[in-house]
TrEMBL record, chain A:
Segments for region (Disordered): 1-125
UniProt name for this protein: DNA replication licensing factor MCM4
Function statement: Acts as a component of the MCM2-7 complex (MCM complex) which is the replicative helicase essential for 'once per cell cycle' DNA replication initiation and elongation in eukaryotic cells. Core component of CDC45-MCM-GINS (CMG) helicase, the molecular machine that unwinds template DNA during replication, and around which the replisome is built.
Gene designation per UniProt: MCM4
UniProt keyword terms in alphabetical order: ATP-binding, Cell cycle, DNA replication, DNA-binding, Helicase, Hydrolase, Nucleotide-binding, Nucleus
From TrEMBL, chain B:
Organism from which the protein derives: Oncorhynchus kisutch
PANTHER family: MINI-CHROMOSOME MAINTENANCE COMPLEX-BINDING PROTEIN
Protein name: Mini-chromosome maintenance complex-binding protein
Highest rank taxon of the organism: Eukaryota
GO biological process, one term: DNA-templated DNA replication
Compartments, as annotated in UniProt: Nucleus
One GO CC annotation: nucleus
Gene that this polypeptide is encoded by: MCMBP
Annotated region (Disordered), positions in chain: 152-216
Residue stretches of biased makeup (Polar residues): 197-210
């Protein structure tokens, strides 16, 4: 419960006087600085229509129905009702007589330890006589509707009414949350959810706080400020509404409202004493979960003299041991019987702030979180979650033997709601949690920047300013950072189209490839950096691990999955083993990862852009060889890169001069000068994040026409010389690049300018990487088939020459291999290598003209 | 107002007086800070404050003002405490408002339900003495402390007086001396023995205490007090691995030692809050105050360097000091160069490079690129104990250093990268958690053939990253976090090092002394302390100078580069220009020049050429060496 504070309330407090154990002075939070100045133990609400009275209930009832743990009194409750629940109190009889609201009566209330620490939910029945000290307050409230809960401005009646109105009327036509899938967006959202509850029978209603806020700001404020008073009120409201609608439905316990997405706090670091006892939402990563902790809710006492038994509820972490047996009037004869006391589940979870929220140079903060009842074991270490809960601070335990106290409070959060943020990785629904919130001004600056005509150049020069020139490469990477538009054709069975741009950088060592990669890795929020040499297929994809404690199989995700929606930078791509590289095939085109391991078969999303860097095989780039020959990568993989850039030392004087100038400037310019010249990295980051989230450009008519033309042109170039210079994959690349360029401009339409730039960049990259060193022409087939068209042509010629030669010999069914080779060499003008000869033989064998067996060649 | 030295002896009295005057006006907090800052600004006043680094803990008075020169090793979670609280006198029932700031424990009879309670936030830093601090620096700091002349106003046990005198001079041997008379008569005077226990376990016998309590020093074999510093203001301005001089109130209340008290299982059952902390966590976060004292920070000064011979604060003093030293700079440089040449067996070029290396410093970063780093690889070092002696000489010159012997065993077993231990909820330190400008001496001559296991590979990768990017990726188990650093790495090896380096110099000994040990020792002995001190000042000072390049020289450098490329584009790359610019910078600074002159550039080019021709030569000699 909140502030223990101020005046103890009469008899209520006197129960605390004889603690069973010297526990702390209540699990009470310290008064926060906002000083509510109330005793919220009086904040009892006229609550669930069951009887509060347990310790005074008739002994007879206890003896029969509460005898052993799986007790089933069964006379009026269906079997779904978990009678053994420790959280159920109120005697059966009180339930029967109940309240006028007939539907509610059969459903037991479940205590909410998440709201009231270890205290029972305040229950005051307006219709039965109130036996305890609570009576005074409750009757007060019953008497006048205008009364508010002590210390708050919450009026139970109004609050309930407001919430019911919210449930009945709230419509959110723009909702795109995954929870709401399958609901009619034009009908009241929460009424549909209630219907769902009646069908599924899971008595939990999750309420998005931003909905409440947009519906009734005042209610929202109350919810945030006084969650432990308001949420029970919500509970009441929901249950009334629910059982009115579905009087016949049977639930395990009454519906509990679980608000989430409170906008109060986003970051663990910004929690401060003012947040105590308020509802907050923070994000973080689970780092440790404890064993299940049984927390006593109700103590069972038995008199050692007459065996009379009684139950006492835990109140603020204490149990008031009855001093006198009411049956035989012996003093101090009651003993606690552990295995007949009631316990509830509790779990401690440690959450660490997520790396993105941390200022540089500091260590991450951790927070302790308590999960109760069914929220126990909902999360596992490594999960990224959003937690909504109540922030608590508890004074350190007072040591009875010492007069001084440590002046420190322990803080924790009682969870009301968990929400995993990385769940979508498994489900594949879209990135609503990624939405970074931008302030108005920030958006304004970004838009101003976008309106500038040279924004593209500005951004690309802001990218890794310490790396000199290589403008086109930077532009390529910039477009990669923005990415294309995601298209979903799964309806028609074609699956998703890749929106991510993949780039390969190859070139001489020492051309700052690694530096570019490092920069990109530092720029994007979900970047991963691996080195080809140091990573295995498993490290890139995912692996299954057995948790040593729980013996559970756990899927651990690797770099590619972790960089979902980000960029995976792979250095020394060429040094990667073949098996490792092979997993990239699926990732780079289908954007998924299939795993079938140790009984886990699944497909994970890995919508990651790959930025790879490769060194040439001979350590220096050999201009006489093709790209494939230089870096020795399979062409199947190469063709999956949208852009392949060569980073070569250009070796020309003007370039040298500019380079020298750039480098010297790097060493003597002051910070400010640099700042002026280039955009701040933070602005760039925000710009990219904004564009990625909010801009989804589509092709307009002209642009599509331009793309078609470009594609046809590309194919034409080659066809004249009998080779193909473009494949559909190249067209897709062009579209992605054009879309990305439109995103740079913050434009919702892809226009001809975008296509022009995409074409230019694509051509530029091709010129560098797909030029046939033998002819000097751009030849895309180098990348797609691994062999240039001229090479293929030559192969054909050799085969024909060989065939001719064999034919000219007349009818010889078998020939010696070596002799044939020598003959062909003698006949041909060009030098023929053994490889070429063998290829020719193979080609002829494919034509079914001959077969090769060992050292002899037979005609067919 | 407090008398002249009350602010050192009874700082809490000052704080409380100000609190009482304030009538809960929150401005009193700022006033307190202002007061202490003002006191410390007075000339020499900071040297009156006893230092935790020099004085054993049990000689310090609890709740007095002390200073501590340290490195922030870990930052714990923020905690909420009772900033203001009310106590009830059980006899008179009178309520008194009290201040909880700068204290660990409250007075008795706290009224937890008082509505005057104010909750405030503070954070705890785990601080360790600066790792790898050279003995000469420690000694010199100890000597400059004037804490011994503090007139002990009211109550100083006689023992304490004695200790100050003995201790400052040779604190390493002193506790041993003291221990002997106590331990010999067995069981005689338990109370006395207890007193010596704490310092002896910290200073002389780390083995016996570390077995049950790991003080988490980055480097093995370190000693000195670790400290839990409670920070109240400016939390965001502190970063991990900052070196600070902290002035704060010492708290060693035994109440803080709560180990082993709440082992009653029934307590845990009803009070799960307590059971949440694992024993490991409790040990890490609440170690006994006698071993890890608490320090409530009043004022912290970030240290630019930890060279005791230089004025520490950037004041007028310092600029005067600098300008007076600048005159001498060139001559000191020549002497130092001669000294280093002797040490490097007569190799003048290598000595020049070593000198440049010792004054290098990452002065800024351009996005991911650290500028100014200058990792030196001295190859061709004679085997046997030469590198060890070389390190000892380097250690004599720089205030902070560490020699990492890269033997296969250490690479496989040592923890270089700090790692988060989630069970104890602390950052377990590693050898690469070092203060800025620490000299890391990697001795690759110790490496033998064999297999590196996975942790060995990780360690080598970490060293590589450190050299190339000047950053260390701390292991947070679920993710890695990058911490930039500024460490001078010197690699000694036989052939070319397997680690990357900015610059490799093959050592060409001109003399081959028959007895290496003797040779080096005599060189070392030949230097006067005053001379060595000059070198020390020189090295620290040259690093802090500003530097610029004029437009004119920029032009010349550019022309030069273009010309060089014209002749042979393969031989000079952008990387070479990078290096030459760094060399030119360091060369100018080493001469005390703050701008690059044409001459400076030519010299830099010249020595770089010499070095390169030497490596070429080496290559052709060895043939297949890469």
């Amino acid at each position: 419960m909140s502030s223990p504070t101020s005046t103890p309330v009469g008899s209520k407090r006197s129960r605390d006087d004889i603690p069973v154990t010297p526990s702390s002075d209540g699990l009470a939070s310290p008064p926060s600085q906002r000083r509510r100045g109330q005793d919220s133990s009086n904040g009892d609400l006229p609550a669930m229509p069951t009887s509060p009275a347990t310790d005074i209930a008739s002994p007879a009832v206890h003896d029969t129905s509460l005898f052993s743990s799986p007790r089933r009194s069964g006379n009026f409750l269906p079997s779904e009702v978990d009678m053994s629940s420790p959280l159920m109190y109120g005697t059966p009889s009180s339930r029967v007589e109940g309240t006028p609201r007939s539907g509610v009566r059969g459903t037991p209330v479940r205590q909410r330890p998440d709201l009231g620490s270890a205290r029972k939910a305040p229950q005051v029945d307006l219709h039965t006589e109130l036996p305890s000290a609570d009576g005074a307050v409750a009757s007060e409230q019953a008497a006048g509707q205008k009364l508010v809960i002590w210390g708050t401005d919450v009026n139970v009646g109004t609050c309930k009414e407001k919430f019911q109105r919210f449930l009945q009327r709230f419509i959110d036509p723009t909702s795109n949350e995954d929870e709401n899938a399958g609901l009619d967006l034009n009908e009241p959202l929460y009424m549909q959810k209630l219907e769902e509850i009646s069908v599924i029978g899971e008595p939990v209603l999750n309420v998005n706080c931003s909905h409440v806020q947009s519906f009734d700001a005042d209610l929202y404020r109350q919810l945030i400020s006084y969650p432990q008073e308001v949420i029970p009120t919500f509970d009441m409201a929901v249950n009334e509404l629910f059982f009115e609608r579905f009087p016949d439905s049977i639930l395990e316990h009454q519906i509990q409202v679980r608000p989430y997405n409170a906008l109060k706090t986003r970051n663990m670091r910004s929690l401060n004493p003012e947040d105590i006892d308020q509802m907050i939402t923070i994000s973080g990563m689970v780092i440790r979960t404890s064993q299940l902790i049984p927390e006593m809710q109700e103590a069972f006492f038995q008199c050692q003299v007459c065996a009379f038994s009684t139950r006492v509820e835990v109140d603020r972490g204490r149990i008031a041991e009855p001093a006198v047996c009411r049956n035989c009037n012996t003093t101090h004869s009651l003993a606690l019987i552990h295995n007949r006391s009631a316990f509830s589940d509790k779990q401690m979870i440690k959450v660490q702030e997520s790396p993105d929220d941390m200022p540089a140079g500091q260590t991450p903060h951790t927070t302790i979180v308590y999960a109760h009842n069914d929220l126990v074991d909902k999360v596992q270490p490594g999960d990224r979650i959003n937690i909504t809960g109540i922030y608590r601070a508890v004074p350190m335990r007072e040591n009875p033997r010492q007069s001084t106290v440590k002046s420190v409070y322990k803080t924790h959060i009682d969870v009301i709601h968990f929400r995993k943020t990385d769940e979508k990785r498994l489900h594949g629904l879209d990135e609503d949690s990624d939405q970074k919130l931008f302030t108005e001004e920030r958006v304004q600056t970004l838009k101003e920047l976008a309106a500038k005509p040279d924004v593209y150049e500005r951004l690309s020069s802001a990218l890794a300013p310490s790396i000199y020139e290589q403008e086109d490469i930077k532009k390529g990477i910039l477009l990669q950072l923005f990415g294309g538009t995601r298209k979903d054709f799964s309806q028609t069975g074609r699956g998703n189209f890749r929106a991510e741009v993949n780039i390969l950088l190859c070139g001489d060592p020492g051309t700052s490839k690694s530096q570019l990669l490092q920069y990109v890795f530092n720029l994007v929020p979900r970047g991963q950096y691996t080195s080809g040499k140091g990573s295995s297929a498993v490290g890139l994809t995912a692996y299954v691990m057995k948790d040593p404690e729980t013996k559970q199989l756990v899927l651990q995700t690797g770099a590619l999955v972790l960089s979902d929606n980000g960029i995976c930078c792979i250095d020394e791509f060429d040094k990667m083993s073949d098996s490792t590289r092979s997993v990239l095939h699926e990732v780079m085109e289908q954007q998924t990862l299939s795993i079938a391991k140790a009984g886990i078969i699944c497909q994970l999303n890995a919508r990651t852009s790959v930025l790879a860097a490769a060194n040439p095989v001979e350590s220096q780039w050999n201009p006489k060889k093709t790209t494939i020959e230089n870096i020795q990568l399979p062409h199947t993989l190469l063709s999956r890169f949208d852009l392949i850039f060569l980073m070569l030392d250009p070796q020309d004087e003007a370039y040298d001069r500019r380079l020298a100038h750039h480098l010297v400037a790097l060493y003597y310019q002051s910070e400010e000068q640099i700042e002026e010249e280039f955009l701040d990295m933070a602005v760039l980051k925000d710009y990219i994040a904004y564009a990625r989230t909010y801009i989804n450009p589509r092709l307009n008519e002209e642009a599509s026409q331009a793309l078609i033309e470009a594609y046809v042109d590309m194919r034409k170039i080659g066809s004249g010389r009998g080779m193909v210079s473009a494949y559909p994959r190249q067209l897709e690349s062009l579209i992605r690049l054009a879309e990305a360029h439109a995103k740079v401009r913050f434009s919702d339409k892809v226009e001809t300018v975008d296509v022009e730039e995409a074409k230019r960049l694509h051509r530029e990259a091709l010129k560098q990487s797909a030029t046939d060193p033998r002819t000097g022409f751009v030849d895309i087939s180098i990348l797609t088939t691994g062999m240039s068209a001229t090479a293929r042509k030559r192969k054909e010629e050799v085969a024909q020459a060989l065939k001719k030669m064999i034919q000219s010999r007349g009818k010889t069914p078998a020939m010696k291999y070596q002799q044939l080779f020598d003959d062909l060499r003698g006949q041909s003008e060009a030098a023929i290598t053994k490889d070429m000869f063998e290829e020719a033989l193979r080609a002829l064998a494919d034509e079914d003209y001959l077969t090769v067996t060992g050292k002899t060649v037979r005609l067919l | 107002m407090p008398s002249s030295h009350d602010w050192i002896n009874k700082p809490l009295g000052v704080v409380e007086a100000m609190f009482a005057q304030s009538n809960s006006n929150p401005e009193w907090e700022a006033k307190v800070l202002e007061y202490f800052k003002g006191q410390l600004r007075e000339k020499e006043s900071h040297s009156w404050v006893p230092s935790l680094n020099d004085v054993p803990l049990h000689y310090l008075k609890p709740n007095s003002l002390v200073k501590f020169r340290c490195l922030v090793q870990d930052m714990f979670d923020p905690e909420f405490y009772m900033g203001v609280y009310e106590t009830v006198d059980p006899s008179t029932k009178a309520n008194v408002l009290r201040c909880g700031k700068y204290k660990d424990v409250t007075e008795c009879g706290v009224d937890l339900n008082s509505r005057n309670t104010v909750t405030a936030e503070r954070q705890t830093f785990y601080c360790v003495p600066i790792p790898g601090e050279s003995p000469w620096a420690k000694e010199s700091y100890g000597c400059s402390s004037q804490a011994r002349v503090v007139p002990s106003t009211s109550y100083v046990p006689s023992r304490q007086k004695r200790s100050y005198e003995e201790d400052d001079d040779d604190m390493d041997t002193q506790p041993q001396k003291q221990r002997e008379p106590h331990t010999e008569p067995h069981g005689n005077g338990d109370s006395k023995r207890q007193e010596t226990e704490a310092p002896s376990s910290q200073t002389t016998a780390p083995s016996d205490c570390s077995s049950h309590l790991d003080l988490n020093f980055p480097l093995p074999g370190e000693r000195g007090p670790a400290c839990l510093v409670k920070v109240y203001e400016g939390l965001d301005s502190f970063k991990l691995n900052d070196t600070l001089e902290i002035y704060g109130i010492l708290s060693v209340n035994p109440v803080l030692t709560v180990l082993g008290e709440e082992k009653d299982p029934s307590l845990l059952l009803l009070n799960p809050t307590e059971s949440m902390e694992t024993p490991e966590e409790q040990r890490a976060h609440d170690p006994p105050a006698s071993l890890v004292p608490r320090l409530h920070m009043l004022y912290a000064r970030p240290l630019q360097h930890n060279n005791p011979l230089l004025p520490s604060a950037p004041t007028e003093d310092q600029s005067a000091f600098v300008s007076s030293f600048l005159v001498e700079m060139a001559s000191v440089r020549a002497e130092l160069l001669a000294y280093l040449t002797h040490v490097l067996l007569g190799d003048g070029l290598a000595a020049e490079y070593l000198l440049l290396h010792l004054i290098s410093n990452v002065y800024t970063r351009r996005d991911v690129l650290p500028l100014g780093k200058f990792t030196l690889n001295l190859s061709g070092c004679p085997l046997n104990s030469y590198t060890e002696r070389l390190y000892q000489i380097v250690q004599q010159l720089v205030p902070c250093s560490y020699r990492l012997s890269m033997s296969l065993h250490t690479m496989n077993s040592m923890r270089l990268v700090p790692k988060k231990d989630y069970v104890a909820n602390r950052l377990v330190s590693g050898a690469l958690q070092l203060a800025r400008n620490t000299s890391l001496f990697l001795d690759e001559t110790q490496l033998e053939q064999g297999q590196l296991d996975s942790s060995g590979v990780r360690n080598i990768t970490a060293l590589g990253n450190l050299i190339s990017w000047q950053k260390v990726d701390y292991d947070f188990s679920y993710h890695q976090m990058e911490f930039p650093c500024n460490i001078n790495v010197l690699v000694t090896s036989e052939g070319r090092s397997l680690l990357p380096s900015d610059c490799q110099v093959p050592l060409q000994p001109q003399v081959t002394p028959p007895n290496m040990e003797e040779y080096l020792t005599t060189i070392h002995m030949a230097q006067f302390t005053s001379q060595i001190n000059k070198f020390r000042v020189y090295l620290s000072l040259a690093r802090t100078l500003d530097y610029s390049i004029s437009d004119e020289v920029t032009k010349a450098v550019e022309d030069d580069f273009v010309d060089m490329r014209k002749d042979d584009p393969q031989s000079v790359t952008a990387e070479d220009l990078h290096r030459m610019l760094v060399v030119a910078r360091l060369l100018s600074l080493s001469l005390g020049q703050t701008t690059l002159s044409r001459d400076g550039w030519m010299r830099a080019k010249h020595i770089d050429m010499l070095r390169r021709s030497r490596t070429e030569q080496q290559k052709s000699l060895n043939g297949n060496e890469p």
